[in-house]
Design brief:
The chain is of the alpha/beta class and about 250 residues long. It has helices at about 70-80, 105-115, 155-160, 165-170, 185-190, 190-200, 215-235, 240-245, and strands at about 1-10, 20-25, 40, 45-50, 65-70, 90-95, 120-125, 145, 175-180, 205-210, 235. The strands form two sheets. It has a nine-stranded mixed β-sheet. Bound molecules: iron/sulfur cluster.
């Protein structure tokens, strides 16, 4: 059983497939908290975390979390979206941390179905959970957007960096990429050293850096420093198109 929080059709706003029409499935639950990424007021309470806090904090958003028992339920949702489209869109499995469910029958059954049907599938993950690619081979045909967290997330190193999980993804997939979230503070401090510690063994894997900011004003503040950082070190700048276009609107 897995939890689905929302599904929607939009364009991918970040990373390699920026601008690509995509159907998003957002799964609930995360093994990290990223308390330094932002603060929100939910039902009169101050909550710390990322812009997907509704997919992380089940207690506060329980009405959004739907139990999924069978892959067919996810396939039915996909079909509902597809009936309005004349082409096969990119499919994004995101969260929260969708790989909490990597060996769940419903979740993996859906991944198998997508791969078999020829969809391009991206799983957006914090890359801390090690997958058994031999026992679950459909994952070999998936693109992993490895959004490994740096110290600015507020979680400790041993929780946010799992090099065995990263190695398994890099070695078993034809294409996956890294995506780091940076603010001005960490850029001035040791962002480069932290990134090299994580990506250093994989010079062939593309590295995207994007500005911290789930609001347009924060994004605008951080973006120029991230551009300069990319120009200096040869990383690829990724914007957050969904924030530029729709600011804090959900399901965009
Ligand atoms: S790993 Fe991602 S989903 Fe989980 S708390 Fe951090 S930013 Fe949010």
């Amino acid at each position: 059983m897995c939890y689905l929080v929302e599904h929607f059709y939009s364009i991918q706003g970040e990373g390699k497939f920026t601008g690509t029409p995509s159907i998003f499935f957002r799964f609930g639950g995360c093994n990290l908290k990223c308390p330094s990424f932002g603060e929100y007021f939910v039902k009169g309470k101050k909550v710390f975390g990322c812009d997907s806090v509704h997919a992380v904090n089940r207690k506060l958003f329980v009405e959004d979390w739907r139990q999924i028992e069978r892959a067919q339920q996810l396939q039915d949702i996909l079909q509902d979206h597809l009936q309005h489209l004349e082409f096969k869109p990119h499919v994004v499995l995101t969260g929260g941390e969708p790989l909490l469910y990597w060996n769940d029958a419903a979740f993996y059954g859906f991944v198998e179905y997508l791969v078999r049907e020829g969809f391009i599938v991206t799983i957006e993950t914090n890359a801390t959970i090690e997958i058994d690619f031999e026992a679950y081979p459909a994952y070999k045909d998936v693109v992993f957007a490895m959004a490994v967290k740096l110290s600015n997330s507020g979680d400790p190193y041993e929780k946010r960096v799992n090099k065995a999980a990263i190695q398994a993804i890099v070695e078993n997939t034809a294409y996956s990429f890294f995506k780091f979230t940076l603010g001005r503070g960490i850029i001035e401090f040791d962002a480069y050293e932290q990134i090299v510690d994580i990506v250093g063994e994989y010079p062939e894997v593309e590295v995207f850096c994007m500005p911290l900011g789930d609001r347009l004003d924060i994004l605008r503040k951080n973006a120029p420093a991230v551009v300069d950082f990319c120009l200096l070190h040869g990383f690829i700048y990724s914007d957050r198109l969904q924030v530029r276009l729709w600011n804090r609107e959900r399901m965009r």
